[in-house]
Amino acid sequence: IFLLNSGNKEITWMMLEAGAETDVVNSVGRTAAQMAAFVGQHDCVTVINNFFPRERLDYYTKPQGLDKEPKLPVKLAGPLHKIITTTNMHPVKIVLLIKENPLLAEVEALQKCYRVLDLICEKCMKQKDMNEVLAMKMHYISCIFQKCLTFLKEREDKLDGLIKSLLKGRDKDGFPVYQEKLIRESIRKFPYCEATLLQQLVRSIAPVEI
To answer: Which of 56, 95, 117, 165 could covalently link to 142 via disulfide, CB atoms 3.0 to 4.6 Å apart?
Structure first.
């Protein structure tokens, strides 16, 4: 109750890191995020919806089954977790987070990271308590990682070129067309067509011309 009334993001984050469950419901069938939204504490909702336990990512830093190597090198877990838990989903912000970390801004590292993000997306959709929001977020970040890969491989200006492309506005009104196309492309490539969230996004975006 204190958490919801105070709207304290730091306390919310501390409780989540201590192991608070986000999908447990109260006596009226509402989760913590739903109750926070009900009382208008939208910052708390954002923190809850963007929380991803580090242990869930660390799972991929250990060889599983017959694998001899982990899917994610230990050194990449920290930088990737920072991006996964960010609440700023602007594509330029994500590219900047990649660019500022030398461990991430390499072709092989980005390849490993986006594949792990795709695995997490799949798990979010196939688990008993489906989490479409987190699945879409993982897919979206994966798409940006893959776009970074393209620029690292094909462009001399590398990630700087991607940032410039994302920020450049068209001549007549300054609208960032490349950025809009990247976001739409990521939505279009979401592999789970039955997802309610995807259908809502498509209905909202489809009638709007660039």
So the answer is: 117
DSSP-assigned letters across all residues of the chain: -HHHHHT-HHHHHHHHHTT--SS---TTS--HHHHHHHTT-HHHHHHHHH---HHHHHGGGS--TT-SS-SS-HHHHHHHHHHHT-S---HHHHHHHHHT-TTTSSHHHHHHHHHHHHHHHHHHHHSSS--HHHHHHHHHHHHHHHHHHHHHHH-TTHHHHHHHHHHPPPTTT---HHHHHHHHHHHHT-S-TT-HHHHHHHHHHTT---
- pTM, two decimals, is 0.85
Domain boundaries, the chain: 2-50, 54-206
